[in-house]
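Collaborator request, handled under Task 6.
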Amino acid sequence: MAKWVLFAVLFLSWGTTEKLTAQRFKAGIIGGFNISQIDGDKLGGFNQPGIHAGGRVAALMGKRWQLGVEMLYSQQGSQRVRTDDPLSNYERIRLNFVEVPVLIHFSDWKFRLGAGFSYARLINYKIIDYSGADITDFQELNPDIFSVVLGVTFNFTEKWGLDVRWSRYLNNLQADKEDSPFFGRSIGIRGIYSF
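Structure tokens returned to the collaborator:
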């Protein structure tokens, strides 16, 4: 999958007719955290923090446009707080993904706006029920998640930036169609260092 995404980036950047600066690609590292929730588990709020880190490569398609691909480790899920619905069966859901977002970016002044899609592969997960029991073995989750992604980056300098990103699943996290559907949402707050 990652090879095809990289091929697409190279092909699209090669085909652009606008003259670019001397640098055709930009690379960077990303580090930060997610806050997330799952619609359908009867737990509210963005109460599950997690790691959101990896690397990115962007093909420069003009002075203001970039096509970016990232490879990330991303933790998501949900967690009960005191004000949540007492009828929810869950105490905590922790999801560990390898995620590959592909975004188109538009830059102006110190801001970069991005929109696109993401493919995430579920590496592993842990589900704790309301009594504190581990019920992971009794829950089957979809290993392939597709999401829509929107984000904005503020560049403090040419190399350092702060990125805020929102994403939402496009397909059901629950593998069993009989169960109520789970659709995750997350907000990522990340620092970006560009080489």
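The cover message to the collaborator said: "The CA atoms of residues 35 and 49 lie 4 Å apart. The radius of gyration is 18 Å. Please let us know whether this matches your experimental observations."
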